[in-house]
Structure formats: C-alpha cells, structure tokens
Amino acid sequence: KVKQHQERRCNKLKETIQVMASQIFFDICEEKPIDVDLFFSSEIHFPKIEYEPRITAHFPIPREVKGMQIIQDSIFSNLEESQNTIFTLFFASVCHLAGHAKVTDFKKYKEWIKGKSENRAYETIEFIEDIRVKEFLKNKFPEYYSEIIKIEKIFDIINKKKIDDFRNLAK
Fold it and tell me: Residue 36 in contact with residue 52, Cβ under 8 Å?
C-alpha cells in the first residue's frame, strides 16, 4: 500500500513537471499546442526535435536502473544529492529544443546542402543553429539561458574530472 502511494505521488510529480515543461516550451517557441507534438519518455536517451511534417519534440525523462537515476546517458547514484542537476538538465533540454522550434529552419539550407556529405552538412547546420538558439535564449529568455549555462558548467566540471582521472590512471 505504501509503495502504491509512492508510485501515485511520483506519477503526479512527473505529470506536473511535464505540464510545466510544456508551458515553458510553448512560451519560448510561441507555437500553439495544436501545432506541435511533445512526447516525454523514459524510453529515449536524448532530446530530439523533428521539423517535418510538423514540429515534434521528444524529451527523455529520468529512469531508474538498479537504484540509480539515468537521464541523457548520465548516471546519478544519489537522487537526493542529484535531483537539482537532473531537473536542470531536463529543463535545459526543454528550453534548448523550444529555441530550435522558434529559430531553426532547415529549409533555408536546402541549396547549400546539395553536393555535400549529408552527415557533415547536418552536423555543420546543427552547430550553427545551436549558436543561434543560444543567442536567442540569451537575449529573449536570460532567466532560462542561465539554467543552460549552469548545466554546461556542471558537465564541464564532470568532464574535467574524468580527464584528470584518466590522466592519473595513465601515469
């Protein structure tokens, strides 16, 4: 009975977070919910957006594996200590994809792509569009942009530690 109560509370919390994320997404991209599909799933590993035939955004939600929380292939062993980081990562993903929904238009690259390696061309476009999204969020939604910067700093620290650990191991 206690476990059922906890599951209901957890499901209610997920639902509340998804409603909040949807509202933020639509505030940023200025689209109507009828024109965009949003999906939240523990089955996907990374956020992704599709533009055709209509904008469709997919967001990973944390999933529990052996008592650890996993989101975007990042593993958090202690939910209590990591819940802010997990939420910030999720929130930053929502803002980032909403920014793409607002400013990214792959159609303008149609002629430029011709005759190029498709994978390389899309990598280049995504790099350019990520910069445009960051600038858009920085100028129009600085309070949201600060959360993206926060999560980037957290992962910079984690990645630096991994490199340092690897260097120490190699000695």
Answer: no
Determine the residue type at 40.
F
Identify the helix (H) or strand (E) that includes residue 37.
strand 36-41
What's the Rg (C-alpha) of the chain? 18
CA distance 53 to 61: 25
Both structure tokens of 114? 């011709």
Helix, strand or coil, per DSSP, at residue 141: coil
Torsion 8-83-130-20 (CA) sign: positive
Reading the block at residue 90, the tokens are 């999720």
CA 48, 60, 26, 140 torsion: positive or negative?
Answer: negative
Higher pLDDT, 67 or 105: 105
Size of the chain, expressed as the number of residues it contains? 171
Element (H, E) at 20: helix 2-29
Distance CA 62, CA 43 (A): 9
Q: What pTM was computed for the model?
A: 0.82
CA distance 97 to 93: 6
122-139 confidence digits (pLDDT tens): 999 999 999 999 999 999
Token pair listed for 99: 């920014």
